Amino acid sequence: MEIRDTALSDVKLILPRVFGDSRGFFKEVWNQREFARHGLNVNFVQDNFSRSCRNTLRGLHFQEAKPQGKLVWVSRGEVCDVAVDVRRNSPTFGKWVAECLSCENHRMLWIPPGFAHGFRVLSDEADFQYKCTEFYVPDDERCIRWNDETLAIDWGDVDPAELIISEKDANAPSLKAMFEV
Ligand SMILES: Cc1cn([C@H]2C[C@H](O)[C@@H](COP(=O)(O)OP(=O)(O)O[C@H]3O[C@@H](C)C(=O)[C@@H](O)[C@H]3O)O2)c(=O)[nH]c1=O
């Protein structure tokens, strides 16, 4: 398991070792000792799985009082995954990183607490899995508009009219409205 820095150094790109053979492949997706070796001492309490069709966009989501760290990967299909630093006093507040995660490239992201997260599905369908360091607290959940003009996230080549977005996400406030910045 290789753990690399991204443009936002607290967000890590994880490259599992993939053992392929005539049956298929094997990989470890989470190894506490490997994470700890890189200074990541995390305690996961919830595992999530979502299935989405092409051009579904989920996000951007975070929890305010009980921020969740997330280890995310794709077990079928391909997504453009985005993490946004929303830690108020961070020098990189409002900066984001995007990474293409797929069942082919085996890439995973570690998104620490204090980041908003979202993804767009690039394949016909995508199975998205993630481990969380805090339980889901619906009242604590916050959403930021996916096409916020301050963030200006590059979601790739897509007609916004073709995106499939929940009502909650479509009505999410801007970064400015959320943080009064
Ligand atoms: C996230 C979540 C949702 N739910 C329920 C609430 C709701 O009825 C239904 C669908 O919820 P949502 O529409 O919020 O699902 P979704 O838009 O997939 O939410 C997820 O988006 C990605 C981008 C994240 O980063 C996640 O942390 C999570 O916020 O599932 C749970 O029971 N537990 C959970 O942990």
From TrEMBL:
<protein>
    <recommendedName>
        <fullName>dTDP-4-dehydrorhamnose 3,5-epimerase</fullName>
        <ecNumber>5.1.3.13</ecNumber>
    </recommendedName>
</protein>
<dbReference type="Pfam" id="PF00908">
    <property type="entry name" value="dTDP_sugar_isom"/>
</dbReference>
<dbReference type="InterPro" id="IPR000888">
    <property type="entry name" value="RmlC-like"/>
</dbReference>
<keyword id="KW-0413">Isomerase</keyword>
<comment type="similarity">
    <text>Belongs to the dTDP-4-dehydrorhamnose 3,5-epimerase family.</text>
</comment>
<dbReference type="GO" id="GO:0008830">
    <property type="term" value="F:dTDP-4-dehydrorhamnose 3,5-epimerase activity"/>
</dbReference>
<comment type="subunit">
    <text>Homodimer.</text>
</comment>
<comment type="function">
    <text>Catalyzes the epimerization of the C3' and C5'positions of dTDP-6-deoxy-D-xylo-4-hexulose, forming dTDP-6-deoxy-L-lyxo-4-hexulose.</text>
</comment>
<comment type="pathway">
    <text>Carbohydrate biosynthesis; dTDP-L-rhamnose biosynthesis.</text>
</comment>
